Amino acid sequence: MVVVHPTVDVAITKDEERGKLPKKGFFSKYFLAGQQMADPADQEVPPDADFVERFLITKRKYIAFLLPLIVMHMFWWFTAYRYDWFTLFSTRWQMPAIMLLGSTVAGMTAEGGGAVAFPFMTLCLQIDPVTARDFALMIQSFGMGCALFAVLYMRIQIEERSLLFGCLGSIPGMILGFAFVDELFDGPQKKMLFVSIWCSFAIALYLLNSQKKRITYSTIPDFKPWKAMVLVATGFVGGIFTSFAGSGVDICIFSINTLLFRVSEKTATPTTVVMMGLNSIIGMYCRAVWYANVSEITFEYLKVTIPVAVTMAPVGSFLGSHFHRQKSPTIPMIK
């Protein structure tokens, strides 16, 4: 039986209402709120723990960040030296620069790095949406894959049933989207669809942020079959969005969790990070291996952006896990 813990925000004081809250208090409340763990008992060190066990428990959050970073950087530097990828930086420097922001946002919030990469590539670099979509999926598979590891290793609270049923819908939706939906739209139509999706997400976040004292839950309360069907259907629609924009299932599942099921943003955000990481890996396999028609420019941008993504996405997950639940959706809404 799943235990559901309702949470309510602390009442706003008169000083807060008048904007007189000290800066330190404001920062501590909203940006050092602390991590919401799946099982707080996992953070306790057993009395008979040896040095290794004690180290793995007490330094878990740092291991979660450093381990994927070191492994991925080691492989990247060896490969980059072997095939001389360094020469690509003179012409493909734009995406590593923009993904400093994109990858941090991907790990910190409910939106994937494709939410930054796709519009930048299509609008600023004038690259076709198919190439932008492929790059978004591929770079997310590395960056959000590392963020996925960080979330799971730190044992941050996620909504496992939302992840399961969401993926059951999103993976078929993404595969069908690659095969049938993607070719139905031209470049300008895909850009308009992308803008429409994110405008809808911004409205959802505004509604969410306007409810300051709403009751939230650590997981979906009173889980029933109809809720599973809603998650599958939402995942399917999000998978179709992902098939032409490189992201979408994350914001769909985040919105349905927080607005309909009243799940706390501190649970919903890492859940979408894990979901988008898994979907990106599958999407990359479909495009690069199954269809095998990814353009050369996509691989060139990928080669120079991997070290940025695998560094900043886990950083984003680490920082975002400490944010107050009201600040988690604020960043993508501002963007």
From TrEMBL:
The keyword Zinc does not apply. It is found in: Membrane. Its main location: membrane. The chain crosses the membrane at residues 62-78, 98-123, 135-156, 162-180, 192-208, 228-261, 273-292, 304-323. InterPro entries: TM_pro_TauE-like. Keywords: Membrane, Transmembrane, Transmembrane helix. Pfam families: TauE. It is a multi-pass membrane protein. The keyword Membrane applies. One of its GO terms (cellular component) is membrane. It comes from the Eukaryota. This is Uncharacterized protein. It comes from Trichostrongylus colubriformis (Black scour worm).
